[in-house]
Design goal:
Blueprint (H helix, E strand, L loop, with lengths): L1 H25 L3 E4 L3 E2 L5 E7 L16 E15 L2 E14 L3 E5 L3 E2 L2 E2 L3 E5 L14 E7 L3 E3 L4 E9 L8 E2 L7 E5 L4 E7 L2 E14 L3 E5 L3 E6 L7 H4 L4 E6 L3 E6 L13 E2 L1 E8 L12 E10 L17 E15 L2 E14 L3 E5 L2 E7 L4 E7 L2 E5 L3 H10 L4 H12 L11 H32 L2 H7 L9 H16 L3 H19 L9 H8 L2 H14 L6 H27 L1 H4 L5
Parallel strand pairs: 2-9, 11-20, 21-27
Antiparallel strand pairs: 1-3, 3-5, 4-5, 6-9, 7-8, 10-12, 12-16, 13-18, 14-16, 15-16, 17-20, 18-19, 22-23, 23-25, 24-25, 26-29, 27-28
Helix pairs in contact: 7-8, 7-11, 8-9, 10-11
Length: 591
């Protein structure tokens, strides 16, 4: 009896183990896939199954080494059979391989349980053709050329085809290429087509790529992911994105990037373009140009296949007889389905300072024609300007001009000898009356003049009274010069550059008219500054004029220039006063 009891105790663990084996089998954690051989662009479904009702979730981190997890969905069910509850739970994971060859789905853990590994074979299939597999989604990629020059534009066309309905949460991986500038061309285009009798919806994207380094450039494979609506779930499209994840990949493309050809001038900016044009326009007709007119020349460059950032500034050299100041410039990129069109615009403001014929040199822009493989030059021919004199100067000259006394005498003699005019001889009483009235008026005029000078001497400083004595000897009154100088000083204090330059022209004309009566017809600012003879004043004037057309103006520099302008003008006036006071020093200054 004792021996039988010991035997029962020894086989008891074996009996318990035999009874628990079916339960352990039902509670096993298993892994399975829908296919073990796939193409690199295809997806597979990994199903993880358990019969244990638990809150544990499987650890999917081991999958990240060889696969991308596109989506996960769960399915569970509970049944009561003959009073016995049965529980089942599935996790369906959509995977896509990261590489080709033989891949292993590693063991997945769920609590203290672990699934078995699964071997997957990924083929080296490169092109997606709907006739070769049942994938409802595939991609195509094309390039404009497989061999280009460095910085030349390459067009990448990417097309995505799908024959199933997709939810809106579809995405495309970013296009990233080392040592290249990338820009999408226009908006995404949608289309439909029929391939092998199957209707496909399509999405097309175009990219402009400018390689910046010589050698092989690799356009990586792009990945498109989406969620397909499952037809067996009539409510899926209404309530949730619980459909099947789908994926497609584009093929990898390798491009040869060549250096610029040796025939291209080494000193010129490298401009590989499909086409390049140059054109110009003027702010006013050239046939009406005269001295002192401000006219703007605008030159525009348009290049197919280049961005605006690649286009260098347009050089416009100017001859003598023209004051030139840079005006506004701008750049713009225009996106078309055929590529980028870069546009650059440069302007220059010009003011002719002398009349006659002025020739502007030709403008050349060298570029490389990628279509024909040759160096070309876009060119604007030289232009001859016919500048007319300033009519205002002619009018002022004719107004100031006075007929010589001898001409007046001749005219008077001719008039008195004319037979139609008979001059009556005044009698002696009339002559005495006129002599008396003349003497009286002369005396009254002298008294008035003396009183006016007495009042002026009380209110004006000595140097101003000395300048007033020269009023009869100068075509311009010092009073006018002083007033013009005051207006110039006021404009500088207001920090108004444009007004200051205008008042500088008025003052310099008045000032030079008092100094050099023979040159009073000169109203052009350049001519007046030449007569004054101050190189510093000319430099300041040019810098102020340039600041009006500069894209970036420094306020502090402008205020300094206006201060220096007034300081130099005061110095010029002081020299003139010193010359008038000391005749010996006056000989040092040109007449």
């Amino acid at each position: 009896m004792k021996r039988a009891r010991n035997l029962l105790l020894s086989i008891r663990p074996l009996l318990l183990t035999g009874l628990l084996m079916p339960l352990l089998a039902n509670a096993a954690f298993t892994a399975s896939v829908n296919k073990t051989v796939i193409a690199s662009h295809e997806t597979l479904e990994l199903t993880l199954h358990t019969d244990v009702n638990s809150s544990d979730v499987p650890d999917l981190s081991p999958l990240e080494w060889s696969f991308d997890v596109l989506g996960t969905r769960q399915q569970s069910k509970t049944n009561n059979i003959n009073g016995k509850w049965e529980y089942a739970r599935d996790w369906v994971i959509t995977l896509t391989p990261k590489q080709q060859g033989t891949l292993i789905i590693p063991p997945i853990k769920l609590g203290d349980q672990e699934s078995e590994p699964i071997t997957i074979k990924v083929s080296d299939k490169q092109e997606d053709q709907p006739g070769n597999d049942s994938s409802p989604l595939f991609m195509k990629a094309e390039v404009s050329s497989e061999s280009i020059y460095v910085q030349q534009e390459l067009i990448l066309t990417l097309q995505i085809f799908f024959s199933v309905q997709l939810y809106d949460n579809k995405s495309l991986s970013a296009l990233d290429i080392d040592d290249a500038l990338i820009q999408q061309l226009g908006e995404t285009r949608q289309f439909d087509t029929i391939i092998d009798g199957i209707r496909y919806l399509g999405i097309e994207l175009k990219f402009s790529i400018h390689p910046q380094a010589v050698g092989d450039m690799v356009i990586p494979s792009l990945t498109f992911t989406g969620v397909a609506v499952e037809s067996r779930d009539p409510f899926a499209s209404l309530f949730s994105n619980s459909g099947k994840p789908v994926i497609a990949r584009s093929p990898e493309i390798r491009i040869e990037v060549k250096p610029q050809p040796e025939s291209y001038p080494s000193k010129e900016t490298w401009l590989p373009a499909k086409n390049l044009t140059i054109q110009e326009k003027w702010s006013q007709p050239l046939s009406t140009l005269k001295v002192g007119d401000a006219i703007t020349r605008t030159i525009t460059i348009k290049a197919d296949g280049l961005t605006a950032a690649q286009l260098p500034p347009i050089l416009m050299s100017q001859p003598s007889g023209v004051n030139s100041y840079p005006d506004k410039s701008g750049t713009e990129d225009r996106e078309t389905r055929n590529g980028i069109q870069g546009q650059r615009t440069d302007s220059i403001a010009m003011i002719p300072t002398q009349s006659g014929t002025i020739t502007l040199p030709a403008v050349e822009y060298i570029w490389f024609d990628t279509t024909n493989g040759e160096v070309n030059t876009a060119k604007l021919p030289a232009i001859t300007l016919h500048v007319a004199p300033d009519p205002k100067v002619s009018e002022q000259t004719s107004t100031v001009a006075v007929a010589p006394p001898e001409d007046l005498d001749v005219k008077k003699t001719d008039d008195s000898s004319h037979p139609a005019v008979i001059a009556s001889q005044p009698n002696e009483n009339t002559l005495r009356l006129w002599q008396f009235l003349t003497a009286l008026f002369l005396l009254l005029w002298l008294v008035t003049l003396g009183f006016w000078r007495f009042k002026s001497n009380k209110n004006k400083p000595r140097d101003y009274r000395e300048k007033a004595n020269d009023a009869l000897q100068s075509p311009e009154s010092p009073l006018q010069e002083a007033d013009a100088f005051a207006r110039l000083e006021s404009a500088c204090q207001q920090k108004n550059v444009r007004l200051a330059l205008s008042e500088l022209q008025n003052w310099s004309h008045t000032f030079t008219s008092t100094m050099y009566p023979n040159h009073s017809e000169s109203t052009c600012l350049t001519d007046c500054l030449n007569l004054i003879g101050s190189s510093k004043l000319k430099t300041i004037c040019n810098e102020l004029s340039g600041s009006l057309y500069s894209a970036q103006t420094n306020t502090a520099d402008t205020e300094t220039l206006l201060y220096n302008l007034m300081d130099e003008c005061r110095s010029v006036r002081a020299k003139k006063t010193e010359k008038e006071t000391n005749p010996e020093l006056g000989k040092l200054y040109p007449e």
